[in-house]
Amino acid sequence: MLMATAFLPLAEVPDAVDLLCRDITGSVAALFEYFREEWMTRNRMPLWNVYHVQTGTNNHLEGWHFKMNRQAGKRHLSFYELLRLLIDEQGSTATLIQQMTSGCVTVNDLRLRITALTAEYDGGAHAIEQFLKAIAYDIPEPFIFVCIV
Predict the structure, then answer these.
(1) Residue 132 lies in a domain
(2) How many structural domains does the chain have?
(3) In sequence order, what are the residues at sequence separation of 6 or more whose Cβ sits closer than 8 angstroms to the Cβ of residue 117?
(4) Please, which domain of life does this record's source organism belong to (predicted)?
(5) Whole-angstrom Cα distance, residue 23 to residue 70?
(6) Which of 78, 116, 139, 148 is deepest in the core (most CB within 10 A)?
């Protein structure tokens, strides 16, 4: 739930971290101490906090371009080599579309959930602890890393 503090307003992050580190000992306590010393400074908190941040990148396009270049294996393809590469990609895309329409969660769904949870929190519907649990439960760790980047 420590990573979920990134979705709180900056002013509420210290209280949330205090709440989370109640009754902890050992290596987890050391992690919280490190987090406080290194990442909860006035200069660093705005770097990783994503409260009301609209995330939008072209990483998906860059990734696709990198994949196509890697599969091509060379810089200049003949027409038929390019055609074969595009036909193979179309088959992969059809599989992805099938997976997405069968109920897999998309990034946009996760963004909508974060927005809804944040709006509920701003409206006073949830306490800090409830909000952190909801964010930590709904958002898988890889997505949190993507949002922060």
Answers:
(1) yes
(2) 1
(3) 7, 126, 131, 134, 135, 138
(4) Eukaryota
(5) 50
(6) 139
- Domain hosting residue 28, numbered range: 2-55+107-148
Report yes or no on 46 lying in a domain.
yes
Q: Which of 109, 133, 125 is nearest to 7 (CA)?
A: 133
Single-letter amino acid code for the residue at 145: F
Cut 0.70: pTM above it: no
**Cα–Cα distance measured from residue 11 to residue 45, given in angstroms and rounded to the nearest whole number:** 10
Q: How far apart are CA 41 and CA 70, in angstroms?
A: 41
Amino acid of residue 72:
A
Residue 74 counted as domain residue: no
Residue 143 has pLDDT above 70, yes or no: no
